[in-house]
Design brief:
Layout lengths: L2 H9 L3 E7 L6 E8 L6 E8 L8 E2 L7 E6 L5 E5 L18 E5 L7 E4 L5 E6 L5 E8 L6 H14 L12 E2 L2 E2 L4 E8 L16 H6 L23 E2 L8 E3 L5 E6 L17 E6 L5 E5 L4 E7 L5 E8 L8 E8 L5 E4 L7 E6 L5 E6 L7 E5 L5 E3 L5 E7 L5 E8 L2 E9 L8 E2 L12 E8 L5 E8 L7 E7 L16 H5 L4 E6 L8 H7 L6 H14 L4 E11 L1 H10 L7 E5 L5 H7 L4 H7 L7 H5 L13 E6 L7 H13 L4 E6 L9 H19 L11
Parallel strand pairs: 33-34, 33-35, 35-36, 36-37, 37-38
Antiparallel strand pairs: 1-2, 2-3, 3-4, 5-6, 6-7, 7-8, 9-10, 10-13, 11-12, 13-14, 15-16, 16-17, 17-18, 19-20, 20-21, 21-22, 23-24, 24-25, 25-26, 27-28, 28-29, 29-30, 31-32, 32-34
Helix pairs in contact: 1-12
């Protein structure tokens, strides 16, 4: 096959995400993404996986729009979101771009039923494990009391052809979209509103649960058709909910959520305003009480099986001379008493979940090029590493506490569903029948370690072509973040695509990478042009010394912070034959005012208004006169995290200084290149550019460019 055919085949491979386990432990559901027939987007279908690993995976849903955000109700009813048309709504077939609504699929299968269709679409759903209660996230106009008024407000703006907004708070953008004109809101749906049978006694005698679910008549028909505007008034609303996560107590009476403190004027006036507290919200009344507010940022709450505690992640926000740090916190829901869990753990935990008896929690964390599953005994704070290698996400605990289910990936293999023993240390996972192919790339993946200039150990992955005659060129992929690690499979920056073309790929974790302890992050905090840069060069030196690598044919490539580092290296050394820089930071002073949340960078670099020194000293643009390495600049017009102004300034500066460069521009992409047809062009262009400068081949311009 041609190079383009190879890349197209790679992009057609199914992608697995969104693992969920039913409350009875008998069903696993996962989303499987594949290109839509027209090839212009990915769509996801829900598949069921046998937790015992006996029956083959089977597809549950299929529609042109696709389905995602699966969540189980206690009786096995499966909720999901989809932009599929409402069969009962007049004219729905003609909607050009309908928002995602909430749907329900009966336990025995059959036709899905529409549950809730707010005009702006459903963005998330969380369910209680012992009662038919769902917390649904959507957005609503601030002036609208319910979804009926929200729909009227939307229609009035559409009829007038108005899309303008008037902002009064900061920030006004987030990642790839402007905030507003609607605000975040959450609804509580219960009983017949969810289209299922409500059985008395599901929550025992808990009075709060009865209040949360007033419809407890056991005669409610299982096939009742709920209103499209069920529970039309949101329970809570406002920008305090922006970018927060929530979990519902098992009895459905309370849910716990991150909460951004309400402030007059600017919603975010300085770095300290990035802290969030944790709140318990009554699912019947919306009454809110603060559980903890100590200046840290709280996320990933998980309520204990008995409803008495919550485990969550707390981030101690960084300052210019002290890096951020993260830990687990255990909070008593009645008293608010809190304590840090496993205080000696020098890793950043995430995705905590409970064992059924409440004695321990499980979580994941980056760790030396892997992302293991850990278990922490709450009585002793003893931490046990449960997995030997690989990167695990979406860990689900079986109701009997015997097994864990998760998605496992590695640098050399994409995500697959697996089963683990809940108490065995350093174990290998048992793979379950997967909806995706079991084929893995043929490249060789090796762990490489070396010493940095200050003696600290630097870890990397080295990906080598399966077969090669003689030393091969080396391309270094620099990860983004900068707080991140090369420890899992990536579809956008995939080293195996390059290995198939005969390149070796180095995946280094320099200073600021996670999984090596807080001191490793501190080494590079606010010093992007120092230790992160020299660590990269040390790792490259070690890889280039390998006899299988041609040390005369080196390239560097990176996106976001990785693109920043590529730009920095371009102005600091001429050892690379070419450099690829995607969605990259170039002029940090200007970036502070154009990015979506410039105040976040003040935690590391200080206030640019009081002392811009660190912004200036760490800006690659001040070294533009030293760049003589050919560069490929890539950027998406809709990128609001690293705005297109960074690429335009970089491109202008390169052109004005006579540097050799190309500019690949995507008018319909944001920080990431997500559409299949654009990803195809991205890979084709990058490979052609690398082959031009590392293999002395003429630049093969992609056919559609």
């Amino acid at each position: 096959m041609s190079r383009a055919d190879d890349i197209a085949a790679f992009l057609r491979r199914p992608r697995i995400a969104g693992l969920q386990l039913s409350p009875d432990g008998r069903r696993l559901v996962v989303g499987v993404g594949t290109p839509a027939p027209d090839g212009t987007r990915y769509r996801t279908a829900l598949w069921e996986i046998d937790p015992d690993g006996v029956a083959p995976a089977r597809q549950l849903t299929r529609s042109a729009a696709g389905e995602s955000a699966a969540a189980f109700l206690p009786d096995g009813e499966l909720l999901f979101t989809s932009a599929r048309p409402d069969p009962d709504a007049a004219g729905s077939e003609g909607s050009s771009d309908p928002p995602a609504a909430l749907w329900s699929l009966p336990p025995a299968g059959g036709e899905a039923r529409l549950v809730f269709a707010p005009p702006a679409g459903v963005t998330a759903v969380s369910t209680a494990s012992r009662r038919a209660v769902a917390i649904v996230s959507a957005e609503v106009y601030p002036s609208a009391a319910d979804v009926h008024e929200d729909r009227a407000r939307e229609r009035a703006r559409d009829d007038a052809g108005v899309s303008a907004q008037l902002f009064t708070t900061y920030p006004i953008r987030w990642w790839d979209s402007y905030l507003g004109p609607r605000e975040p809101a959450r609804w509580v749906l219960t009983g017949s509103e969810l289209g299922g049978t409500v059985r008395p006694g599901d929550a025992g005698s808990d009075a709060g649960a009865e209040a949360a679910s007033p419809s407890t008549d056991a005669t409610t028909p299982a096939d009742a058709t709920p209103s499209r505007d069920a529970a039309s008034r949101p329970l809570v609303r406002g920008w305090s909910l922006h970018d927060t996560t929530a979990d519902v107590a098992p009895d459905g009476g309370t849910y716990v959520s991150g909460w951004r403190p309400e402030r007059p004027g600017l919603a975010v006036a300085g770095p300290d305003d990035l802290a969030t507290h944790l709140a318990a919200i009554d699912a019947a009344t919306g009454d809110r009480r603060v559980l903890i507010d100590d200046g840290r940022a709280y996320s990933d709450p998980a309520v204990s099986p008995d409803g008495r505690h919550v485990i969550c992640v707390a981030e101690l926000l960084g300052e210019p001379d002290r890096a951020s740090d993260e830990c687990l916190v255990l909070i008593d829901l009645d008293t608010g008493r809190a304590r840090d869990v496993a205080p000696d753990l020098d890793l950043w935990p995430s995705e905590p979940g409970w064992l059924p008896d409440g004695s321990a929690v499980v979580f994941t964390a980056d760790a030396s090029g892997h992302r293991p599953v850990f278990r922490c005994d709450l009585a002793t704070d003893e931490v046990t590493r449960l997995t030997a290698d690989g990167a695990y996400t979406e860990v689900r605990v079986s109701p009997d506490g015997e097994h864990l289910y998760a998605l496992r990936a590695h640098v050399d293999s994409p995500h697959r569903p697996v089963r683990l023993e809940a108490g065995a240390a350093e174990q290998e996972a048992t793979e379950l029948p997967s909806p995706a192919s079991s084929a893995v790339p043929g490249a060789r993946v090796e762990r490489l370690t070396t010493s940095a200039r200050d003696g600290v150990e630097i870890g990397s992955w080295l990906v080598l072509p399966a077969t090669a005659s003689g030393p091969v060129p080396l391309v270094t992929f620099i990860h983004g973040g900068p707080l991140g690690s090369w420890n899992t499979w990536h579809w956008r920056w995939n080293p195996h695509v390059l290995a198939d073309q005969g390149f070796a790929v180095l995946l280094p974790d320099p200073a600021l990478s996670t999984g090596y302890g807080w001191e490793f992050i501190q080494r590079g905090w606010g010093r992007w042009g120092h230790e992160p840069s020299t660590d990269l060069l040390s790792a490259i030196d070690a890889a280039a010394a390998d006899e299988r690598i041609d040390e005369q044919r080196l390239a560097a490539a990176g996106g976001s912070f990785g693109g920043y580092m590529a730009n920095w290296l371009a102005g600091g050394t001429d050892r690379f034959s070419c450099i690829v820089t995607h969605a990259s930071l170039w002029a940090l002073e200007g970036f502070h005012g154009t990015t979506d949340l410039g105040v976040a960078w003040e935690r590391e670099f200080g206030s640019p208004y009081l002392d811009p020194t660190r912004f200036v000293e760490n800006s690659p643009n001040r070294r533009v006169g030293d760049i003589d390495t050919p560069m490929l600049v890539i950027h998406g017009e809709r990128d609001l995290r690293v705005p297109i102004s960074e690429a335009l300034t970089l491109w202008t500066d390169l052109a004005r200084h006579g540097a050799e460069a190309r500019f690949l521009y995507f008018p319909d992409e944001n920080h990431w290149v997500l559409k299949p047809q654009n990803a195809q062009l991205w890979y084709e262009t990058v490979v052609a550019f690398l082959r031009e400068h590392l293999c002395d081949e003429p630049f093969e311009r992609p056919e559609l460019l």
